[in-house]
Amino acid sequence: MIDLIQFIDAFLKEVFEPYEADVYYREADKEVMKLPYVVYESQSDAVSRVREDFTFTVHIWSHEADYLIQDEVSEKIKQSILNGTLRTQCAPMSIAVDYMGRADIPAEGQQIRVKEVRFKVRHYNM
Q1: Is the pLDDT of residue 91 over 90?
Q2: How many C-beta atoms surround the C-beta of residue 105 within 10 A?
Q3: How far apart, in whole angstroms, are the C-alpha atoms of residue 86 and residue 33?
Q4: If you compute the radius of gyration of the chain from its CA atoms, what whole number of angstroms results?
Q5: Does residue 58 contact residue 38 with C-beta atoms inside 8 Å?
Q6: Quick one: pLDDT band at residue 77, thresholds 50, 70, 90?
Q7: If 0-12 CB within 10 Å is exposed, 13-18 middle and 19+ buried, where does residue 25 land?
Q8: Where are the alpha helices (DSSP H) in the chain?
């Protein structure tokens, strides 16, 4: 699992690099965070002895005025999954990736927007 997390982390950092957004696993560093930033987490379901499914949830935090950036970046993630870029970047691991969806999530402040992107990775232990 650690290798998979490292590959996903590198993938997300590459996607968000042009936007100068920091990427965090599980929790943002409250001391240094600046908008936009990204927090992602994973959930694992063991399906069999040779396969484990991971659901990744990516939260993109930004200012209200940056909603187009959120849409652009969430589309980049979607296209990277659909066109096989993410799977290729995770080689030599045996994985299959499915895009699950994206949604706007209510935030506490009206000046802050959060977009959620979800995808599933099936990891085969061969």
Answers
A1: no
A2: 12
A3: 26
A4: 15
A5: yes
A6: very high
A7: middle
A8: 2-16, 67-82, 85-89
Average pLDDT of span 31-42: 89
Is 76's pLDDT higher than 90? yes
Angle at 6 between CA 60 and CA 14, to 5 degrees: 50
What DSSP designation does 95 have? E
How far is the C-alpha of 108 from the C-alpha of 47, rounded, in Å? Answer: 36
List the structure tokens of 19.
Answer: 């936007």
Tally of residues, the chain: 126
Q: What is the pLDDT of residues 38-55, one digit of tens each?
A: 999 999 987 788 899 999
Neighbour count for residue 22 (Cβ, 10 Å)? 17
Q: Which domains does the chain have, with CATH numbers?
A: 2-124 (3.30.70.1700)
pLDDT band with cut points at 50, 70 and 90 for residue 32: confident
Model confidence pTM above 0.85 = yes
